[in-house]
Amino acid sequence: MASGIQLIKAQLEELRRKHPYLYIREDKDSPKISGTIFFEDNGARCKFDIEIVFSKDYPTVIPLVRETKGDILKTYHHNGDYFCLETPFRVWEIFRQDETLLNFVDNLVIPYLAIFIHFQGGKVSPREHAHGAKGVLADYKKRFNIDDDLVAFKLLRILAERKYRGHALCPCGSGIKLKKCHGMAIFNIVVDDRFKKYDFMQDFLQIAIYLKKTDVIDNYSECRAEKVLRYIEQIKKNPQKKWNY
Question: For residues 108 and 80, what is the distance between their CA atoms, to the nearest angstrom?
C-alpha cells in the first residue's frame, strides 16, 4: 500500500480535478501542497491561499494546514501556526472515513474557512464550537447525550482506559447497567476500527486540566490519584507533546 510522498502525489491528481490551483512542493523536511482554494458559501465565491503540511507518515499522521496571506489571524481557532479544524476526535473521525486529500480539503478545511467567513461577518455558524478543552468536552457531551460535565468526563474515562464493561453500572448515577444506559454511544466507538488507534487519554487528560480549573473534579477521587495528577502536570509543562497514560 502506497504511503508518504508517493501517496500524496497520487491523491493530488484527484484533488486538483476539483481544486486545480493547488501544487506540491517537495520540501527537504516534509512535502507541502500550497496554492489558492476556491469555494461557494451561500452563493458567494470565496477564496483563500493555504498550505498543507505533511508528515512522512501520511496518512497515519493527519496533515496540518494554514492560511498564507494573513487573512485569518492566529487568534481565531489555531493551534500554533495551523488551523484548529475541529476537535481532535472529530478531525480523526472525518479523515478516517476516507483517507484522501480531497476528503481532507472538502470536509475539514473548507468547512473551517466557511465558519470563519460567518464569524468575520458577525454571524455564528451552527457548526461553531468552543476552542480547546471546552470544545472537546462539548463534543463528547453531545456524543454521549449528556449535559453534565463530570458524567461526560467519567464516560470518556472508559474510552481513555479502554475498559468498556457493559454490565457495570453507568457512571451517570441512574443505577442502570452501562449497556442499557449511556453505553451504546461508547460501544459504537469501541467496535469501530477507525478509532482503535485514537488517543482518547489525551482528550481525557486535557479535559481533566480544564475541569480542575473550574473545581468540577476536585472531589472526584479518580482524578486526585497520583498517576493522573502527574500526567496533568506534565501536559501543563509541555502541552504539544503526546503523553501516554
Answer: 18
Q: Residue 5 is placed in which grid cell?
A: 510522498
Give the residue among 115, 140, 118 at the shortest CA–CA distance from 127.
Answer: 115
Total count of residues recorded for the chain: 245
Return the C-alpha cell found at 33. Answer: 501542497
Mean pLDDT of the chain: 87
- CB-CB contact of 35 with 16 (8 Å): no
Question: How are beta strands 44-53 and 78-79 bridged, if at all?
Answer: unpaired
Pairing of strands 44-53, 31-41: antiparallel
What domains lie within the chain, and their CATH numbers? 4-120 (3.10.110.10), 132-237 (no CATH)
Q: Which letter does DSSP use for residue 107 in this model? A: I
From the DSSP assignment, how many helices (H) and strands (E) are in the chain?
9, 6
* Distance of alpha carbon 235 from alpha carbon 231, whole angstroms: 6
Q: What is the largest CA-CA distance in the chain?
A: 58
Residues 6+ away with beta carbon under 8 Å from 241:
234, 235
What pLDDT is stored for residue 26 in this prediction? 80
pTM of the model: 0.86
pLDDT exceeds 70 at position 109: yes
Nearest-angstrom CA–CA distance, 97 and 235: 29
Residue 147, C-alpha cell as written in the block? 449535559
